[in-house]
Design a protein that fits this description.
The protein has 57 residues and is mainly α. The protein has a domain at 27-56. The chain has three helices and no strands. The longest helix has 23 residues, at 3-25. The radius of gyration is 13 Å and the shape is elongated. The mean pLDDT is 93.
């Protein structure tokens, strides 16, 4: 895997963490996330799985 690809995975993880934290702090944003949610799994599950994958880079 190329370094820039690894960096993309790390950036995705960091961004999902920020989105999740922002949703927890802002009810309007949280509601928007729920109304427009497009992942098959819960965001926390995705973050957890991505963290596991990230550790294997």
């Amino acid at each position: 895997m190329k370094n820039n690809q690894k960096e993309l995975i790390v950036n995705l993880y960091d961004l999902l963490i920020k989105i999740n934290e922002e949703g927890l702090e802002d009810d309007e944003f949280y509601e928007w996330l729920n109304d427009n949610y497009f992942f098959e799994k819960n965001l926390e599950e995705i973050i957890f799985e991505l963290n596991n994958a990230k550790s294997k880079l």
